[in-house]
Amino acid sequence: MADKFLTEAKGAIFSAFGVLPGLQYPATTGPLVREAQRHLAQLILQPIAMLMAEEATGKLGNRVLIDVVRPMQAYDAGGKARALATMIEALARAREAGIEGATLQDALAFIDWQDE
User: Which of 20, 53, 55, 62 could disulfide-pair with 36, CB 3.0 to 4.6 Å?
Assistant: First the structure.
């Protein structure tokens, strides 16, 4: 029974902090770990970081940015490179068709490869 209670307690603590339950299992593989890390960073930690940055901005008088999502981009580099290539191709076709407006900077900002 102690093992069952320990597992349930871990699950409750993980849930309280926004950690996906799949991370409890020893057989969890890379894709689930990456998804859980992304979930934690985007949905739990980044909102907290934004509140901290807002408070620091008010107290320091200069704009403060705290980004916990961007450092995780190493996991997404291949997918983001493919997305950027697709967007550049779409921009080129749009220009050939006479549609103007979107730029490479827009594409970079969309996939979060542009510094603010």
Answer: 20
